[in-house]
Amino acid sequence: MNNILVVDDEPIARQSLSDILRLEGYNVTAVANGELAVEHVRSYSVDLILLDLKMPGMNGLDVVQVVNQISPDTEIILLTAYGSMESAVEALRQRVHDYLLKPASPMQILESVKRGLERRATRMIENVEAAGNQQVYKLNDGSEIDLMRRTISLGDQEEFLTPAEGHLLKVFVENAGKVFSHRELVLLVQGYDVSQREAQEILRPLVSRLRHKLHVFPELYRRVVSVRGTGYIFETE
Question: What is the pLDDT, as a whole number, of residue 84?
Fold first, then answer.
């Protein structure tokens, strides 16, 4: 079942979009602003986002920029009642799948969603074929990391990672033995620069969640090490 995120600050529009999609069998989550949308994408796998362009705080294009960094395989459809050629061009330039003017009909919405999910599925297949086994890492203890699927497995044990957890583990395994500062990791994983103090606050729960999932994989668990006052290192085998 495909996971769809609806982002709109108008309660009626948010509920209407959610109902249309749920009736078609999609798994739908709805949030009221861009900040909540970004937080959801960091924590859960999202196949497609229906995103309002004009919102208080983070607007639609702000959300697009962050999502493209933390979950580049997520398709995005922008919805707005204030259509303009400039915003449409900017949206398409930022890898937005579609741009619909409110009020879009249920048929328009479902057709756009269908095409977006089909495009995502095609791209994922192409990525797997292009990457081959380059995205799969096997450790000495037999555990296997599949960065494309965002899974870790050992025997009959398997853990699924969120997009942010997957990005963090990818940075670690591809740079074993290198010490990263908190700021460097936030920039590489989340796509934006923050102060050292803010970076620590962002990373602490993310690393904690990742290490919790790694607990059943002792070889991986022991290799994620905090470097006091600096950041983290993924130790070599």
Answer: 57
